[in-house]
């Protein structure tokens, strides 16, 4: 006999990420969307556009859902609200015994995130963080390759995440204003590098030291003249050290025109056109644009194009010899990473799998981001405690 679908509530369903989660929950036979929570004036029309059944109620906040006498208590919830709200919303749900998948970042400070992780453990509730790229087939293949040692001992990593966010990303709606506010969890470090911090640590282990140099801002010039301005950073250049001894560099910018971003390289975000390395940059038969280059004693693996450059297995390693290039395979599972992540969340709640990205792992990514922001503020190198 098959198990009954899990009862799911989505908090903040009208945003970009919330819409994607909503669609996947509606399509998944193992989940039943029993409520959506969003105070936005346009929530009702968005609900209709997404195909959410008319009988599925909209609540203004989590407290209203939990007080309802007409809707059953959810088994689990997916939180897709701005970062500064993640901890208070997750806290309310966890205290009610509801399992949580919270979008990244888990929190906007390490301290509040640490308290949330402890609360979930105390209440015996699963707390997962939505670092969906762990389920991307390119990252799955890269993790397997690095773990199997095909590049030898990893020495260093070089990476770029750079693209140009349009002005409406920040200003199309007053509800989006947090995206340009540092104190409210905005900025390219917490919004975007938190993904990279998680993937880098997923592939290479814990980051223990960072140094950050800010890239000259290009937007909001007038607002930045105010000494008390709260404008978030637009880009940084980073040096990194991992506990394993691996060192790295990372260029991060949301104001640069560039094809070097995970979204453009993999096509994972339907709103961002995919770019390939054909002669005009858009050839369907070209390779994915590289974002990470993992340098080892036996070869270099670039990701997401998954090209391994080496002298070949068993051959001598010398600059006098000709390098070989091999494209590694990825699995052919047709599910997108958000679907894989949802399936995983269901299995974790049912006790069938161990969590991939736990609250603790999500907190480790926030800790790296907070160290970067500290380095920007102090203009010093920052060590990261375990």
TrEMBL record:
Gene3D superfamilies: Dihydrodipicolinate Reductase, domain 2, NAD(P)-binding Rossmann-like Domain. Residues 6-131 form the Gfo/Idh/MocA-like oxidoreductase N-terminal domain. InterPro entries: Gfo/Idh/MocA-like_OxRdtase_C (IPR004104), Gfo/Idh/MocA-like_OxRdtase_N (IPR000683), Gfo/Idh/MocA_Oxidoreductases (IPR051450), NAD(P)-bd_dom_sf (IPR036291). Residues 143-384 form the Gfo/Idh/MocA-like oxidoreductase C-terminal domain. It comes from the Eukaryota. This is Quinate utilization oxidoreductase QutH. It comes from Sporothrix bragantina. The lineage of its organism: Eukaryota, Fungi, Dikarya, Ascomycota, Pezizomycotina.
